[in-house]
Write a structure and sequence with these properties.
Layout (H helix, E strand, L loop, with lengths): L2 H23 L9 E4 L2 E4 L3 E3 L5 E7 L2 E3 L2 E4 L4 E8 L5 E5 L4 E5 L4 E7 L5 E5 L9 E6 L1
Parallel strand pairs: 3-6, 4-7, 6-12
Antiparallel strand pairs: 1-2, 4-5, 7-10, 8-9, 11-12
Length: 141
């Protein structure tokens, strides 16, 4: 390659980067990064699942997220959740308002029964990794 061709490519790079960032500025700020706000905290987002009318669901606890992150149900709905730790670290499934606090060793699992609130959401989280975004919600939809 000729040295001039490298200089030509590098001189075009700032213009391309500027164009990309200008286009990105028009997008909503919450669209990137794979995170979402739950009760004012940053959560690692691994999707939502509508569980209205269901009695049982599986939930994955991994390093450092829950999947699905948000369970959408009906007001007062009771739901049995089979929580499986598929990560390499110990995790918990904790809901303060409902007195639930299950510790899960790597490869371990627990079954809990939760109740959806009358409105809004109830937060569940890992006591060990909440500050790293490991939380989710039971949300009335």
């Amino acid at each position: 390659m000729r040295p001039g061709s490298w200089a030509s490519r590098w001189s075009r790079w700032p213009a391309a980067a500027g164009g990309a960032s200008t286009g990105g500025a028009a997008s909503p700020t919450e669209a990137g990064g794979g995170t979402r706000q739950i009760a004012g905290e940053q959560a690692n987002d691994h999707g939502s699942k509508d569980v209205s009318g269901e009695q049982e669901v599986s939930l994955e606890a991994d390093d450092f997220y829950f999947e699905p992150t948000v369970l959408i149900g009906s007001p007062g709905q009771q739901l049995t959740i089979d929580v499986e730790n598929e990560g390499n670290a110990a995790h918990t499934f904790t809901i303060d308002e409902q007195g639930i606090d299950e510790e899960l060793s790597p490869g371990g699992s627990a079954t809990v029964t939760v109740t959806f609130p009358d409105s809004g959401q109830v937060v569940f989280y890992c006591r060990f990794h909440r500050s790293q975004g490991m939380l989710g919600a039971l949300q009335v939809g």
